[in-house]
Description:
CATH architecture: Beta Barrel
Distance between the termini: 36 Å
CATH topology: Maltoporin, Chain A
Radius of gyration: 24 Å
Structural class: mainly beta
Shape: globular
Largest sheet: 24 strands, antiparallel
Mean pLDDT: 91
Number of helices: 4
Number of strands: 39
Amino acid sequence: MKSPHWLTVSSLLALCVSWPAIAQDDAGDSEIVVTGEGLEPALSNLVFSTTTIEREVIISSSSGRIEDVLSNVAGFQQFRRSDSRSSNPTAQGVTLRALGGNATSRALVLLDGVPIADPFFGFIPLSSISPDTLSSIRVTRGGGSGPFGAGALAGTIELESAGALGLDTLTASALVNDRAETEASGIVAQELGGGFAVVSGRWDRGQGFFTTPDDQRVPATARAAFDSWQVGLRAVAPLSPDVELQARISAFDDSRTLRFEGADSNHEGQDASLRIVGRGDWQFDALAYVQARNFNNIIISSTRFVKVLDQRNTPSTGIGGKFELRPPIAEGHDVRIGADYRRSDGELQEDAFSAFTGALRETRRGGGVNSNLGFFLEDDWSIGPIVLTGGLRADHTRIEDGFFRALDASGTLVSETVTPDRSDWTVSWRAGGSFNASRGVSLRAAAYTGLRLPTLNELYRPFVVFPVVTQANAALENERLEGFEVGLDWQPSRDAFVSITAFDNRVEDAIANVTLAPNLRQRQNLPAIDAQGIEGAATLRFGEVSLDASVVYTDATIDGEGPSIALDGNRPPQTPDFSASATLAWEPTEGVRLASTLRHVSAQFEDDQESDVLPAATTLNLFAQVPVTDAISVVARAENVFDETIVTRNAGGVIDLGVPRTVWLGVRVGL
């Protein structure tokens, strides 16, 4: 699906690339340095549980996937354990602190300040993010206000792109694994006058592995084949010594096959954004973006192995923007005032077929429009060793133009639902403080509320993981979070840091796939999901050796009375109670990095009835990079070294598996 916004954005990008020379002339001999980043992080990061991942860690994962990098963060969780090569894209929801339960993201994911969740489904297009293009990742747990805070129910994951100063002029890599699958990427970064431009691309393809265990394979069983690419252009130019223009345009395409021959899916997207950042006395950040996405998927019967559903087209569009102002009101205060807007519209178009005759049974269409307008005010107040923070958001949410319509093969109306438009105002807040108690020791506490709208997918799109049907629910209410946390940060030296946080979060009206019958589920608002736990992180440096570790324990339960009372006390699906990760790295000389990551995830339930279990899994991953010349390095990677059996799905004993032992070898070039 091609977007008409591309012509306008392409013209603006061309202007952005050519502007640096003009700006340089206007500035005379004065040096103008642009960063390509947003405004400085708020002091409130000292109050909340925050983790930062630096570039050397991001580009040295064993799989080369962004989800693998994020899995080192305590509390990070995907809906399924499979990665973005061997899962359905719609299952790529991400969350924090065991607040999952379905495949929609409850964490807000931003790339250079832009929300990147799919406008229709709410999942994160993980395969469209190349780790090589990033400079850092900042993960903040807990409900958020501030810009786009209505999506930050469980926390915020901020991805920052690397600029020309952080990249070589040419960076390229090519790897192949023991299944003859390939991964290739390239980046060209060039300073242009007072600004810069970065062009990037990546292509991953392969036959994949069998996600089906040996004893469950049939002649129709297929490998989890994948073929995905992404390209992007990012340009940054100075408009004045204190103001810079940032522009991005990107496209991606991701095709996968899962479990059976013909069970193919494809997800494509085109994104563009413009951003103006001012760093003067009156700092500001103005942003506008557009997303054009489409998804299609074929469902194969697990008994007759023929096509039963063709989700042939799911076009969607997301538009939005924000304006944030930081006025110099008073010394010691960091005030942020602003507004943001998001609008998502989309429509499913699918055909259902008879498993016995192959004839068309029904043609279905459905969709609608969701929008959110938010206003926010935050203040960080520094008083000597104390930082106090407080923030308010007012969100006007609107759900409109919702419908679902089914026609039989002759075009006769079978069923039709037209849902009434509805809107609401919701106020969210967060507050907290940190206290530098002594040299290297900081105490912090925070409380917050949060909000998430149901996605168009949850409201209007039924889906099938044959033979289980999950119905949509156009009457779903917004989710609401209430939570608090207390923590301690200890940094006895520059080379050691330890953080411990205890938290208690409650999501009211949590949306989950509720079992109604053995092969029938429906999305419903649960009374609540409660999650209490403790998370810890440690970073240690011993000269050339480093250790980064994280651990989290969470007691999460479905709580409350209502139509889902039979689930009271059950653990939400797909939520482990314990996970831990530790990466030991050795960098004896410049350019050399040897690293090993040990990761454990405890057992979790497949469904809300706690009838099917996904066993615990412990994996070891390895990474090695050794230069052979000034510009060329040999790279070796190993995933799941001990070939641990990773169960990613268990539906009544029907099993899907995660990545087996996989060894990669290749080269990385930097000029």
